Every structure is written in C-alpha cells, then in structure tokens.
Amino acid sequence: MCSWVNFYRGLANEARERAARASNLSIKDKFEEVAKEWSALAVWAELKRSGPSATAQLDPRDANRIWAS
Q1: With the C-alpha atoms ordered 48, 50, 56, 58, is the resulting torsion angle positive or negative?
Q2: Is the pLDDT assigned to residue 5 strictly greater than 80?
Q3: Interatomic CA distance for residues 32 and 18, integer angstroms
Q4: How far apart (Å, rounded) are the C-alpha atoms in residues 53 and 36?
Q5: Which of 18, 55, 62, 69 is most buried as measured by Cβ atoms within 10 A of its Cβ?
Q6: What is the mean pLDDT of residues 35-50?
Q7: Per-residue DSSP letters for 54-65?
Q8: Rg (Cα) of the chain, in Å, rounded?
C-alpha cells in the first residue's frame, strides 16, 4: 500500500509535469502553485508519520522555505 507521503509527492510531480507541458502562462503558474501545495502537504505528512519529536525539531523557517519552494 502506498503511503500518504508518496501519494502527495506523486500528485506534486504530476502537477509539475503538467506545468511543464502547459503553453498558457497563467495555467502553468497555477499548476506550479498546486505542485508547491502538494509538496508542502507531503512534508507535513512525513513529519506526522515521524512523530512528535520530528515536529518539535522543525524550524518554522524551514517549513516556510519548503512551502515557498
């Protein structure tokens, strides 16, 4: 069975691929935004799976950087 982390990463990759294929700049930007959101959700799921100690070690600046990338 696929973990949620892998599921969210797969959706992020799919959104990135669609952004790369999009010819309309507006649509391309939207797909890139969606990819960032799925990536951030994958990071969140990874932290939840790792337990409270991993969440406590997360620097909020890292979370913001992950979200913005």
Answers
A1: negative
A2: yes
A3: 9
A4: 25
A5: 18
A6: 91
A7: HHHH--HHHHHH
A8: 14
Going from N- to C-terminal start, the domains of the chain cover 4-68
Residue type, 49: R
Token couple for 37: 């959101």
Tokens 């935004």, residue located:
33
8 and 42 in contact (C-beta within 8 Å)? yes
Q: Answer yes or no: are the C-beta atoms of 8 and 41 closer than 8 Å.
A: yes
Closest CA to 17 of 2, 34, 41: 34
Residues 15 and 34: beta-carbon distance below 8 Å: yes
Residue with the larger pLDDT of the pair 53 and 43: 43
Nearest to 47 by CA among 35, 63, 33: 63
